[in-house]
Design brief:
Length: 246
């Protein structure tokens, strides 16, 4: 990430587009406290935040990570345990050093129902769920509290059409509640469907911010390759779009 300056306002979705490997992962990790920041700062509601996951959680930031099994869930833990993964230390889920399983199970049952997680029990190992239901567990955990900022990286990767539509609807609901939403996706359809503004990353930089009304796969394809559409012929624009689609 180099010389990157990006603002996400309350009540809007900024979708970051780009070919994987151009700094998107590092950007998300820096914002969510998973990677030390060498230079610069992150501000939430005007206040500088310390690069520490728990402090950032306490700043009302939600995070849907890029890899749900490596970063978002703990296989071997139950659905209930995964739902309180970032709040188990708070009441009513713990009393001092002891976990309050009655409180954990009650919240888990409510969220499983609210977010339509298909599981026989909240005591089921989260690893036994389908990819779509695993993602719904993460969404239930992160979306079920008041948020100032939601950061979602590849939120529908590998999911079926029904799960994609469900996750998209929930993201839009958070925006409509007044949450600032940052989406990172390599899927142009997702970027175009969700973004109120589209920021394109190339080699660690934001090369342009595009109004969705003026965005096309061809324009975004050139930007993702580091070029501006104004610099190329119509034939070159079409060829770039074709390469991105492939």
């Amino acid at each position: 990430v180099r010389s990157l300056d990006l603002e996400v306002r309350a009540g809007e979705i900024v979708a970051v587009a780009g070919v994987h490997g151009n700094g998107q992962t590092e950007l998300v990790e820096a914002i969510t406290g998973l990677r030390p920041i060498a230079q610069g700062e992150v501000r939430i509601a005007g206040s500088r935040v310390v690069a520490d996951p728990r402090r950032i959680f306490e700043s009302s930031v939600g995070h849907v990570p890029e890899d749900r099994l490596e970063e978002g869930l703990v296989p071997g833990f139950t659905v209930a345990e995964n739902i309180v993964l970032n709040s188990y230390h708070l009441k009513p889920y713990s009393n001092g050093l002891n976990l309050n399983y009655d409180g954990i199970f009650a919240t888990a049952r409510d969220l499983v129902k609210e977010y339509d997680v298909r599981t026989p029990s909240v005591l089921n190992d989260v690893a036994n769920l389908s990819g779509g239901n695993q993602q719904k567990v993460i969404v239930a955990r992160e979306f079920s509290r008041p948020l100032k900022l939601l950061v979602a990286a590849q939120p529908t990767r590998g999911l079926d059409v029904g799960s994609i539509e469900y996750i998209h609807r929930r993201i839009v609901e958070k925006r409509d509640e007044g949450t600032a939403v940052l989406i990172v996706s390599t899927e142009l359809d997702e970027v175009l469907a969700l973004g109120d503004r589209i920021a394109v990353m190339f080699q660690g930089r934001i090369v342009d911010i595009v109004d969705p009304a003026q965005a096309t796969p061809e324009r975004l394809g050139l930007l993702m390759g580091g070029a501006h559409p104004e610099e190329h012929t119509a034939e070159e624009v079409a060829a770039a779009a074709s390469e991105v689609a492939v």
